[in-house]
Amino acid sequence: MGSAKAEDILFVRKVFDEMQFKELISWNAMLAIYANNRYHVKAVELFLRMEKDGVEPDSVTLATVLPPCGELSAFSVGKRIHEIIKRKRILPNSFLENALTDMYASCGCLKDAREVFDCMSSRDVISWTSIVSAYGKHGHGREAVDLFEKMLGQGLEPDSIAFVAVLAACSHSGLLDVGKRYFDSMTCRYHITPKTEHYTCMVDLLGRAACISEAYDFIRTMPIEPNERVWGALLQACRIHSNMDIGLVAADSLFRLVPEQTGYYVLLSNMYARAGRWADVTLVRSVMADKGIKKLPGASIVELGDRVHTFHIGDRCHPQSEMIYQKLDELLQKIRGMGYNPEVEATLHDIEEEDKEGHLSVHSEKLAIAFLLINTSPGTPIRVTMNLRTCGDCHLAAKLISTITSREIILKDTNRIHHIVQGICSCGDYW
């Protein structure tokens, strides 16, 4: 089922709600519409309503709602679905098992993902790709490579998607030589023509290794036209390694390809800010204003019990807002005692330093973390899903908060999963 317009989805939901008798096929169709159009919260809420109404799900229902659970890091709902699968005894079912593996990995539960994988009665290339991808997302690149090699040792032929998984794993863990070897083997040994996704992984891998010029040369010699993701990976590397010259080339290419894409303007602005070029920061923001381009508001989503809670920057709409802000103030005071100084380089230069710090202190990730610390018992992992790349300040704060609270903090942003334990992040501070 393809994507649909928002008004069409609202209309279908209205028709669905007006149905006097809803058969399972109707529930599954509505779930599929939400899931396929990335209405993850709506999909999970609809599944919870199914449960409340006493509707018994089938394997189609469960397979449909597992990906939204993973996207939202809705671990408790995903875990309950796993229990339903066990109760209904519908395993072995490779489609469901692969969906479970992906769900657990997306929720930051690598151990659970591995248990599902290990219990499979048979594993195809998709199964192996799922577990390789899971280890790669969590920064366990060497383990991902070992699993990929084990798959090869069992005589299974990797496909294009399997190579994306292993190349991404190499990229996340900085395994430059291994990644180059796998990329070369695609054409030389397996006769697979690399696609844009593979080239993006290689540019990201070279960028992580600070091989910016090599990454740029790699793009220029690509046999296919580089798209925004390829140039975006290069711009990100240039921002991190402060390579202004090549970064401007990447930005220029991006603005020609996707002139309305907010994220790349923000990346360029942050690169200028890092270099102290505040006039250029202001210019980028002015261009955005002239074009009517607005920065996508950051949002952080968390699950508590059977409810999904969404937080935005400076959010005071939550019923527990007063407690959340008190907890956040307490946390910030404690981590300042550990040497924490807000990273204000990427905020606007023409506002006062104190205002910059205040702006950073109420980012949605921090509010979400404070909320979960209030409402969960000691030792419970903190899982937060963001709609944007997490900023450097929130990443630093999360590392310090994990230390003072002895909590495992799992931040899932648009770039990767950050698994933070006792102040150390699986990303190695590169994302």
TrEMBL record:
Transit peptide is among the record's keywords: yes
Keyword Transport: no
Domain DYW: 339-431
InterPro entries the UniProt entry points to: DYW_dom, E2_motif, E_motif, PPR_At4g14850-like_plant, PPR_rpt, TPR-like_helical_dom_sf
PPR repeats: 23-57, 124-158
Stored Pfam families: DYW_deaminase (PF14432), E_motif (PF20431), Eplus_motif (PF20430), PPR_2 (PF13041)
Keywords: Repeat, Transit peptide
Entries under PANTHER family matching the protein: PENTATRICOPEPTIDE REPEAT-CONTAINING PROTEIN, TETRATRICOPEPTIDE-LIKE HELICAL DOMAIN SUPERFAMILY, DYW DOMAIN-CONTAINING PROTEIN
Family as reported in the entry's similarity comment: Belongs to the PPR family. PCMP-H subfamily.
Name under which the protein is recorded: DYW domain-containing protein
UniProt organism field: Urochloa decumbens
